[in-house]
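Researcher: Going back to the complex we discussed earlier. I've cleaned up the inputs and rechecked each line, so this should be the final set. Can you rerun the prediction on the complete assembly and write out the structure?
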Amino acid sequence: MRFTIDKEQFSKALNAASKAVPTKSANPILPNFCLTLNEKGLEVLGFNGDFAVKSTVPYMINDREIIRNAGVGSTLVNAKTLAEILRSIEGSEVSVEVIDEAIMKIDDGKFSSRLNCIKAEEYPDIDLEPSGTTFTISAYEFSSLIEQSAFAASQRDQRGILNALHLEAENDKLIATATDSARLARKECPIDSDVRFAVNVPAKAALDIIHMFDGAKNVTVSIATRKILVFFDNTVVSSSLIPGDYPVTRSIIPTMFNYTLEANSSELLGAMNRVRILSMDSEPVVTIMMDEEEVEVSARNDASGSATERISTFQYSGERLQVSFNSQFVIDAIKAVKSEDVVICFLGEMKPFVVKNPKDESVVELITPMRTF
Amino acid sequence: MRFTIDKEQFSKALNAASKAVPTKSANPILPNFCLTLNEKGLEVLGFNGDFAVKSTVPYMINDREIIRNAGVGSTLVNAKTLAEILRSIEGSEVSVEVIDEAIMKIDDGKFSSRLNCIKAEEYPDIDLEPSGTTFTISAYEFSSLIEQSAFAASQRDQRGILNALHLEAENDKLIATATDSARLARKECPIDSDVRFAVNVPAKAALDIIHMFDGAKNVTVSIATRKILVFFDNTVVSSSLIPGDYPVTRSIIPTMFNYTLEANSSELLGAMNRVRILSMDSEPVVTIMMDEEEVEVSARNDASGSATERISTFQYSGERLQVSFNSQFVIDAIKAVKSEDVVICFLGEMKPFVVKNPKDESVVELITPMRTF
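Model: Rerun complete. Updated structure for the full complex:
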C-alpha cells in the first residue's frame, strides 16, 4: 500500500474512526486503525467490539486531487500514534508507504517516521453493508430526535436495558424514548418511509453518532437484527443493539394536570443554578413553591445554609403547590425542550411532572419528584 | 459585620485568597475565608497551614465607592460556597450582613442566601506584617526570576529540599536556583538594595505567588526566619520556608565546552515535539545527532517504531556528537530561556550540557543526558 494524501482530509477521517477505537483493550488488534486503499479511496476503520466507524477519503473532492501516487493495499497501525503524528506535522500533504507488510513509512518532506504495523487479515470481519429496514431522514431531524431524548438514559450499568435509547417507528412516525426510571424523555418526528421496527440502541452510541454528522444533510439508517447502521457523507457508523424488551412507557406519561407553570427558560435555569449551590453535593435537590402571586425556588443544606430566589416572569394556574426534585433532571429537561419559555405541568406534590415546550408537542420530559421530609 | 460591595472587586479578592484555601483539610476551620471589615476595607484571608493570601478591597478606588453601608466586624465562612455564589449572581453589587455571629445573609436584590458562619476568633493567628530583610523589586523582574528557574525543582516529595527554589542575595544580585538532581535552572537579576540572605522557598508557592501579580508594578519582599512575605497592590502573600541546607550547585555548571549548537528555538521545539511521539510514554527520550553538515533529532520505541527530523537552520561547531536526553527537560529549558535562537553547549556524550540564551547570560539551564544503550 502506498499513497500521498491531503493532510486535512486524512486527519478528518482519522478523527472520525478514532471515536470507535478503544484506548485499552484485551484484544491487541483493536487499538489499531484498519487502513485500506481501494478503488473508492482510503478507508479508515475503527472498532471497539460493539461500535464501528468507517470513514472514506475519496481520490477527488470536486476538482481537487486528495490522494495521488496510489498503490492499493491494506494494513493495521496503532491509532493513537498515527493520529498524534498527523496532528503534529506541519506540511499540507503526507506520503505513506507500507514496506513488507511490517513497516509504515510516513513522510512530510521534513519529518519522517517508521511505524510498526500488522497484516490487515488480523482485523475482525465487520459487515458495514446496509441490510434490514432502511430509511433516509434529514440529519437535523435525526440529531434533534436523539439529542432531546438520549440524555435521560441511565449511565450506570453499561449493557442494561435502561442504558438504551428505545427507537421505534410506526404510522409514519419515529419515536425515541429514554428513561433511567427517575426521569423519562420522549421525542418524536415524522418519517417519510412506511417502516416498522422497535430497537434498543445504546444511548451513548446514539449520541456519539449524531456528534459526528458535522454538516451532513441527510443520513440513511439501516436497522438489522443485531445492529443499527448510519450512513452519512463518506462515513458509516455501526452500533450493536441492546437485546431485551424495553419497559412500556407510553401509559405513564400523564395528559391531564392540576397545576401549570409557564416561565422564561433562562430565568428559571439561572435561578436553579444559583440556589442549588446550597443543596447537598450528592443530591442537588431544589424546591419550587408556586402560587398565583409568587414563584420561588430554594435549596438548603444543614452544613452550609440556604438560598432562595423569586421568579419575576411567570404564569401559574392552580392551588398553592410545593415540589422538590433533583435539579439536574429539571435543568437537563428545560435545556432539552429548546424553547424560550417552558411549561411545567404537575398533578401533585409527589406525582411525576412534565416539562414541555409550549409550541412543540413532539417533545415531553417526565420527572419524578423527591421527598424532602 | 455589614457591607454592600462592588461584586467584581469582591470576586477578585475572593479569587486571590482562594489560592491559599485547602479544598479538604483535617482542620475544619481552614476551608473558610476569614473576612474582616475594618478601617482599611474588607480583608479576605485564606490559609492552608503553610501558604496565606490576604487581599484587601478598599472603600474607594479612584473616585468610585466600592464598599458602602459598612459596619465593621469579622467572620469565617465556607470559601467554596461563597466564591460559587459570587460567580453565579448577576447583579453588579451584593449586600452582606452577619447576624448573631452565626448566619451570613447575602443578597443581590433577587437571589438571597443565608450561609452558616463561624466566629472569627476560631481562625489561626497569622502575622502578615513585614519583618526581617526587606527589599522592593519590579514585578516583571521578580516574575522572570522565578518563571525561568522554579520549573526545574523536584515535584516528588512535598517538603524535601529539592522541592525548593533556592533564593539568595549578595553583591547586588538576586539568584534563583532549582534542581531535581537530573536538571538545574539558574537565573539572576540585579537588585538595588544591599541585602544578603539565602533561603529555600517551596517552588510551587513561588510560582503561585508570581501568577497572582496581575498587572502589579512593584513588589516588596520580606525574608524572615521561617517565612517569605510578598506585598503587591492590595495583596500580601506569605509562604513558610523549607528548612535545611540547599546543595552547593555553583561549581557544577561547566563554563568551557567542546561542542556548540545554535538553532532556532521554535524549529527545534517543533521537531522534538514531533519525534517524541515515538519515544516511550514513561521516558520521552530523544536523541540529537550533530555534525557540521547535519543536525537530526530522533526517537524510537520497540513497540511502535521510530521517527527522525532534520533541522534546517543551525550552526554547529565541534566533532560529530550524539546525545540522548529526557526531551521534556530540553523543551522546558528552551522555553525558559525565552529567546528566538537557543545555544546548547556540550562537553561530551554523557556529560551534563547547558541550554542558554545567546543574548542573555543571566539564565542557565543544565541537563544530564540519558544512556540509551
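Model: Worth noting: Chain B has three domains: 2-122, 133-250, 253-367.
Researcher: Good, that matches what I expected from the previous run.
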